[in-house]
Amino acid sequence: MSILAKISDPADIKKLSLLEMRSLAQEIRRFLITNVARTGGHLGPNLGVVELSIALHRVFDSPADKLIFDTGHQAYVHKLLTGRKDFTQLRQAGGISGYPSRRESVHDIVENSHASTSLSWADGISRGMQLQGDDHCVVAVIGDGAMTGGMTWEALNNIAEDTSRRLIIVLNDNGRSYAPTIGGMVRRIDSFKKIDEFRISKEYEELLERIKSNLKKSGLPGNLVYDTLRGLKHGVKGALVDAGIFDSLRLKYIGPIDGHNLENLLEAFQMAKDYGGPVVVHTITEKGRGYKPAEENMADHFHAVGRIHPETGLPIVESRFGWTSVFSEEMLQLARKNPQLVGVTAAMLLPVGLGPMQQEFPERIIDVGIAEQHGMTMSAGLAKAGMHPVFALYATFMNRAFDQLLMDVALHNEAVTICLDRSGITGDDGPSHNGMWDLSLAAMIPGLQVGVPRDGERLRELLRQAVQISGPTLLRYPKGPVPPDIPAIAKRGSLDVLFSRSLPGEKPLLVMGVGAFSALAVQGSQLADTGTLVVDPRWILPIAEDLLQLAEEVAGFVVLEDGLVDGGVGSELQLALQKQGIVRPVLALGINKEFIMQGKRADILAAENLTPAGVAQEITNFAAAIKNKQ
Q: Could you report the per-residue pLDDT of 416-425, keeping only the tens digit for each?
């Protein structure tokens, strides 16, 4: 029987010998490679935290001690060690989430998939525990570039104020987010690693061990034991190790520690647990550790993969980024013609498609790290200085920079273009990654022009237009392959007409599909039992005057949008009609205001009744309701 098969709870790890824990680490790596290869998921980060996760559960007592992972995509090993071994439906409906999930286990504290939040959670939880007399530890495992986020430093500033709380920060330092982590803070932390290259003599190490043993037997408080040992080690290694960022905040620092050496990890975590106050344990790990294809993949060490052949790491189905690749190609073409164009990314250079531009124009690509707020305001500054920044990020991460978009970009009317990849329902990564909030957020911002392409050609067209506009613009497009181009059959002012069917003596319904939902609008209209006029404004916010001018020709409006119905494009159309004194009914079809669990995009849309048949029925019923009121 394998060792992993015997682990159903963290308490089982405490029964293992050091040799058994090493064997367990090997079994877990084999399990991850085999299972994640079948489903896809975050493979590289989890291969890098195997020993670290084992050591955490050996030393700490989850769930009494609270373990918080940041970002949560590095929690697969934690899931295994807390009894969740069925990975057959990882990131699928009915299966386990790709992130920590309170629905799955009491051992999951924070459903953490947006980076850089763990220290704020840990600060709050530890304060609450202290106020209630709970002396257990709170452990925040922060890595994959999350230390570049501004929230971490805000939290550190507060954590450092109270030296009595048992809060342990495990810095999982693998030097990467997707690509290598950037920034001055990272360079400073990297400098600590070089100090550890110095090796003290074997005799001195043995002396330290004897002193440590005697100190522990003395009954001295844990913090005095720690400070004494640290002082002795500094006598040889020098105080430089701790005289850095963390000590300047009065936070105890242990490290750097080999994050794949179980003995070192166990000692460091036990020391941190015994200390009695905030401690930073700096561990050095390797993303993709133990899997040659991942280790040799310099782009991202298999940070996230689709289905792959476990023996070779090659994809079973060649990935097609689709919308992202169209953006990438057009952005490079525009950069060649316009020297004022600058690409901006928040630690997502390759996933958002700025890699080709970075290779050709490295000086005009800015990676701000996991710092969307800074990236947005910095882009406003670039625009003020005469450049035109294109800030490309996932739609879900734009939520974090709403205030900066509103108060820095829009209020100052700066010429910044925001390109939101993975907008709408993304599916596999669950509620935190669905890009369904952006249209409702964008609708609130004065002066922001929002373009949504229905196909690849329209994405190229809208991007070319956006970088010529002397104010803020936002483009959004979904995850996945680009659909076939949908040519316009006619023009009505600025509107593209995609489909038209009139019935004698009746006004048609005007049906508008937002962006990629244009195809759904056409399909639903073709199946509906009523006359329809399907149009695409392309620039959907603010509401086009040409759309309002068609009100006299139609019986009502139907809006299909891959975002929240509440406050979305349909709501904005209804408000625009009211302001003009136009009385026409509006039916808005989109995503309900709820957190949607992981699942396939098609299944989620079907559950929301956003299928050709479902839309056709809604259009037919809406037309019938209008007739009954006449």
A: 999 999 999 8
If the chain, 630 residues long, is cut into consecutive pieces of 10 residues, what is the mean pLDDT of each piece? Answer: 92 95 95 89 90 96 95 91 91 87 92 84 94 95 83 89 91 70 49 42 57 64 54 41 67 90 94 92 89 81 80 69 91 97 94 94 94 95 97 94 96 97 86 88 96 97 98 95 94 96 94 96 96 97 95 96 93 96 95 87 89 96 90
Which ranges in 486-611 belong to alpha helices (H)? 518-527, 545-549, 569-579, 601-607
Backbone angles phi, psi at 590, to 5 degrees: -170, -145
DSSP line for 406-469: IIIIITTT---EEEEEEEB---TT-TTT-B-SHHHHHHTSTT-EEE--SSHHHHHHHHHHHTT-
- CA–CA dist 350, 586 (Å, integer): 40
pLDDT for the residue 210: 67
Q: Using one digit for the tens of pLDDT, what is the confidence trace for 440-465?
A: 999 999 999 999 999 999 999 999 99
Tell me the backbone φ, ψ of residue 175, rounded to 5 degrees.
70, 15
Beta bridge partners of 168: 139, 279
List Cβ neighbours of 119 (8 Å cut-off, separation of 6 or more): 70, 140, 142, 151, 152, 155, 156, 159, 169
- Asked if residue 567 lies in contact with residue 440, where contact means CB atoms within 8 angstroms, the answer is yes
Residue type, 183: G
Contact 114, 69 (CB under 8 A): no
The pair of structure tokens assigned to 158 is 């507060």
The pLDDT of residue 215 is: 61
- pLDDT of 226: 53
Cite the active site residues. Answer: 287, 372, 400
Residue with tokens 């290779």: 359
List phi, psi (to 5°) of 305: -130, 155
Q: What is the pLDDT of residue 223?
A: 53
- List of residues 6+ apart from 159 with CB closer than 8 A: 119, 122, 123, 165, 167, 169, 251, 278
Q: Is 90 in contact with 297 (CB distance < 8 Å)?
A: no
Alpha-carbon span 344 to 391, nearest angstrom? 5
Instruction: Give the closest residue to 98 by CA, choosing from 397, 89, 106, 82.
Output: 89
Nearest alpha-carbon partner for 171 in 76, 252, 110? 252
Annotate 336-367 with three-state secondary structure. Answer: HHCCCEEEEECCCCCCCCCHHHHHHCHHHEEE
C-alpha to C-alpha distance for 100 and 271, rounded to whole angstroms:
27
Predicted structure pTM score = 0.77
Residue 49: Cβ within 10 Å count: 30
Contact 222/275 with Cβ under 8 angstroms? Answer: yes
